[in-house]
Amino acid sequence: MRFTVPEPAFVAIVGHNGCGKTTLFRALTGQLPYQGSVQVLGQELRTLQRPAASGLLAHLPQRGSVEFSIPVRDLVVMGRFRHHHFLGAYQTQDYALADAALARVGAAHLAEQDFTVLSGGEQQLVWLAQLSLQDARLYLLDEPTQQLDVYYRRRVFDLLYSWVTEQQRTILCITHDLDNLAALPAGYLLNLSAPTPVLERLTPATIRAARQYLESEESLAVRR
User: Fold this and answer.
1) d(C-alpha 148, C-alpha 210), whole Å
2) Residues in domain ABC transporter (predicted)?
């Protein structure tokens, strides 16, 4: 598989379960070895020891977890980690940015709450707020709307698209939410379930084709 993503861009990565979507992200984040070449802004990823620390990429996995009590605001501000020396204290301006990030995802009211007692959907909004503060060139998001209701799914996709258009970021987003993809003004689609995955323009026609292909694959799996 070979593809080149223009910058900035929103790329929706779709496919049936087990087709390699999360595996692709694990390779991009250095968690799995890979053959071939993966370059971001002309830099080969395997030569970078800490791509996140360099500001090159940021990753939101499918299921984040925190094993200790922490106020939401303190968790979000950690997205500013690469702007500080190790163990450096966060400043007033960092917390102001954290508050603004929470407001953008509709979670300002959660700022003082304990993250561990929030619902799954609320926690996902907090993770998105933290991710936005990492100020990366490339964002990798694995199913960012899977635990959210209809209203927040639409809000999250609008937010991600604003990162592309307003902040000139590039986003690779694994998702099954084809309905909300159809509402985006522009972007690209990569169907990893296709025999030969290629990067296509995100249009009603390509979304419809992807939906039909995925539904046919699911039907085939059931019959098997």
Assistant:
1) 22
2) 1-218
In the block, tokens 């296509």 appear at 200
User: If DSSP codes are grouped into helix, strand and coil, which group holds residue 172?
Assistant: strand
Integer angstrom CA distances of residue 35 from 97, 181, 222: 39, 31, 33
**190: which 2 tokens?**
């990569």
- Given CA atoms 33, 48, 174, 200 in this order, what sign does their dihedral have? negative
Which tens digit of pLDDT belongs to each residue from 127-175? Answer: 999 999 988 889 999 999 887 888 888 888 988 999 999 989 999 999 9
Give span(s): CATH 3.40.50.300, the chain.
1-56+139-224
Asked if residue 194 lies in contact with residue 211, where contact means CB atoms within 8 angstroms, the answer is no
CB count within 10 Å of CB 139 equals 23
Q: Encode pLDDT of 68-121 as tens digits.
A: 999 999 999 999 887 776 556 888 999 999 999 999 888 999 999 999 999 888
pTM for the whole structure: 0.85
Is pLDDT at 30 greater than 80 in this prediction?
no
115 dihedral zone (left: phi>0; alpha: psi -120 to 50; beta): alpha
1-56+139-224 — its CATH code?
3.40.50.300
Q: Look at strands 43-44 and 39-40 and give their pairing.
A: antiparallel
